[in-house]
Amino acid sequence: MAGQRYDAIGQGYASHRQADPRIAAQVWAAVGDASHILNVGAGTGSYEDANRDMIAVEPSAVMISQRGPQCAPVIQAAAESLPFPDLSFDVAMAMMTVHHWANMRTGLNELRRVAPRQVIFSFQEAVHDALWVFNEYVPAALGLADNSPLEQVVDELGPCRVEVVPTPFDCLDGFATAYWRRPEEYLSPAVRAGISAFARLDPADVEPGMAQLERDLASGAWQKRHAELLELDSIDSGLRLIISI
């Protein structure tokens, strides 16, 4: 499922989805000094470390084709059926991917099978969906990740801790909530193409809202309605790091 989805919507993904160094620092602090790491649903290679012993798994040929030479070696496979023996790795990572898996429970069980520790970058849906861009402009995007609620990820993973990952106003990783203080970025079709919450929708569910956002920015209505956001350097947009213990 994830592979087919990103074969369809993943063109140009690497242009707008790059690792943000502040988020990466939190991720790698959670990974610690593990020596052998698996990155599942690795996409174009964000949050990989060229100085680590890593192997990536990604189901989409389109995403694999955008991986640079600095990325980890990649195997085309799905999270639900990892082609590795039990406990082959020290840590299994999954960065912004579990909400795309066809069977999240099976995928998480596979992560637990191949590594004693797991580090998962995901989001808390209620906080994520509260962002203005969804509620005010693209309500059709609400609830698209309801197949993998954070609470279920935590339950399936077992003992773990959950960290809030702040979203900086100038975030380099162009996920759905990255542009909370840069609303003009959502007007770009290329930016939206890298955001599955928009790319998965029919254009008829997105374009009217974007037209309204453009009018609101031109009139100053958006700036007036969200003046408090313009004073902030970061927010909690629902990003969460789930770390097994």
What does this protein look like?
By secondary structure, the chain is an alpha/beta fold. The chain contains twelve helices and nine strands. The strands form two sheets. A seven-stranded mixed beta sheet has the order 3-2-1-4-5-9-6, sandwiched between helices. The two termini are 30 Å apart. The mean pLDDT is 92.
Salient structural properties:
about 240 residues; alpha/beta; Rossmann fold; two-stranded antiparallel ribbon; 12 helices; 9 strands
Element layout with pairings:
Layout: H1 2-9, H2 13-16, H3 21-31, E1 36-40, E2 53-57, H4 61-64, E3 74-75, E4 91-95, H5 104-114, E5 117-123, H6 125-129, H7 132-137, H8 150-157, E6 160-164, E7 167-168, H9 189-193, H10 196-199, H11 203-219, H12 221-225, E8 234-235, E9 239-244
Parallel strand pairs: 1-2, 1-4, 2-3, 4-5
Antiparallel strand pairs: 5-9, 6-9, 7-8
Outline of the structure:
By secondary structure, the chain is of the alpha/beta class.
The N- and C-terminal alpha carbons lie at a distance of 30 Å
Structurally, the number of domains stands at 1
CATH H-tier superfamily: Vaccinia Virus protein VP39
For this structure, the CATH topology is Rossmann fold
Tell me the Rg in angstroms. Answer: 18 Å
Describe the global form: globular
Give the class-level CATH name.
Answer: Alpha Beta
Which architecture per CATH? 3-Layer(aba) Sandwich
User: N-to-C SSE series?
Assistant: HHHEEHEEHEHHHEEHHHHEE
Q: How much strand?
A: 15-25%
Helix content: 25-40%
Q: Which structural class do you get from the secondary structure elements?
A: alpha/beta
Please mark out the parts with pLDDT under 50 across 5 or more consecutive residues, or reply none.
none
In spatial order, strands of the major sheet run: 3-2-1-4-5-9-6
Largest sheet: 7 strands, mixed
How many DSSP E strands? 9
- What is the overall pLDDT average? 92
List the total number of helices.
Answer: 12
